[in-house]
Amino acid sequence: MRLLILSDGASVHTRRWADYFRDRGHQVLLASLEARAGAEGQARLGGFPWPRPLRYLAAANQARKAISSFRPDLVNAHFLPSYGLTGALAGFHPLALSTWGSDVLVSPWKTPLHRARARYVISRADLITCDGDNLAEKLLSLGAAVRSIVKAAMGVDRVFIRDRQDELEDKETVTVISTRSLEPCYDLATLVRAMPLVIRETARTVRFIIVGGGRQLQALRGLAASLGLGRQVSFEGAVPHSGIAGHLDAADIYVSTSRTDSTSVSLLEAMARGLVPVVTDIPGNREWVEEGVNGFLFEPGDERELADRILQLVQKPAPVDAIRHMNRELLEARGIWQDNMAAIEKAFAELAASASKS
Q: What pLDDT score was predicted for residue 52?
């Protein structure tokens, strides 16, 4: 299959997606504003001195040229308001739209214009991939047909899963980690505000690691300093994906303070490495975490409840072995990257074959 992918070339998720299809023997061209000029298998769109939202409109003409030159069997556009719009305007069929989360959960609901854009892109797509039930429900409300939706989480690589035997109660220091980007929607300030509550209310030593880059890094460091946290929290910044496993292995409890999410790959990675998840009580997380069973939930933005959940684990450790076992079974059932991508590959191949006969 000849597959042209329109997506953010700087994203690890894009590279991982493109590499999957290349490794499976498909011919892949990544066309992107972020593509590296002259890089094999990539076509650079752009050079437009316009505000970023308008660049995706302008990129449609160059996308048409890339399509004409590459002659794909299928175009796969990622992230609805950006490359989804570029793909829809390019006019090629079959078009598979891949949604990531906030592009459906947040963007369309900002204004009627945003909603109209989302409906237009969805109307042009022949197939839509999403990673969870909450995303599928929003797509349906925006006009997607049930038969066009393929649900499959991006998931974790099978070899990423680790057998872990250590117990929280045996640790001299309990380590809490977040691996979300330092952007407003992930609300890391709630975690920072919870830290002194945890430290003050337990005799055990608890330290916090924040892995991730983003616009709020300096503000969060300033907040931590104002709360007197000192060495009890470390900001590691952005790290290569190859380094995530090592950071997770150094921790015991995983926290996500995100206010909106579909299926979070960061959550699945933490579960795969045997951490106990403490995450916001939102639909995307509830698809993977059942309160008190295989993790813990707290109200978004509520640092007191988050601190209580962490203290619950620190002061009276949960049956970690049982949580790890349940989470491994859950991942094996519906969170393995190779299995889920195979389902998407099959859907793409069937769509391309059907289009070639018409």
A: 75
